[in-house]
Amino acid sequence: MNQERLNSQYFYFIVTNQVIQFAMKYGLPLVMAPAIKFVTEKIKGDKPVVTKDSPEEKEWLETVRTTVQLPQHDVGNDFRGLALQYGYLMLFGPVWTLGPLVSLFFNVITFKLDELKLANGKYFRPPVPKRVDSIHPWDLALLLLTWIGSIISPIVTAFYRHGTKPPKPLGQFALDKASVNISSTLVLVAIFFFVRAFIFHHLCVWNQNLKHVGFR
């Protein structure tokens, strides 16, 4: 198992990738709006439409025209990013134990910036509240990631049980080259145990939810 490659890739997705996403999500739209306006008016020569508004409504109408040109907020993109982050943590969390703490730090900042992003009117149109019963289908995606993580995460834990020294060079992916020598039988037993434990835990939680809503 190439531990150096796994460490570097996991660090990239947990830290570097989220920093890049921050820049693209919050910084790039502020740069693109003036750039598009400059290209439209200066290079293409398209002149802006001049309208005569009454002084009482001019400010309000300008705000409306600006808001109409903004894109609508897609909450699916936010869930997609959280599901991707959750998947990396569930599958490869044992690679770097500080990964969940770093992700929590980024999530807190993201939630605060998203709140400002939706409120200042420079990124999206004002969102229209809509009542929903659940976050479906993202709840199924998170459940699937948790189930897969109950299989992959224990195996990664076994590889890293004795630490990451010495790192394995590229190409050594066999189980006997891991940090701890584990047999294929032990891997199958571990997978069988953790899958059954996950199913049992999920059934217990599901039963408690049914009791909470009044089903017997």
UniProtKB/TrEMBL annotation:
Keyword Transmembrane set for record: yes
Keyword list, A-Z: Membrane, Transmembrane, Transmembrane helix
MF terms in GO: chloride channel activity
InterPro entries in UniProt: Anoctamin (IPR007632), Anoctamin_TM (IPR049452)
Residues annotated as domain Anoctamin transmembrane: 2-196
Positions of transmembrane segments: 86-109, 140-160, 180-206
The UniProt record lists the keyword Nuclease: no
Locations listed in the record: Membrane
A Gene Ontology cellular-component term: membrane
One matching Pfam family: Anoctamin
Protein topology in the membrane: Multi-pass membrane protein
Protein name: Anoctamin transmembrane domain-containing protein
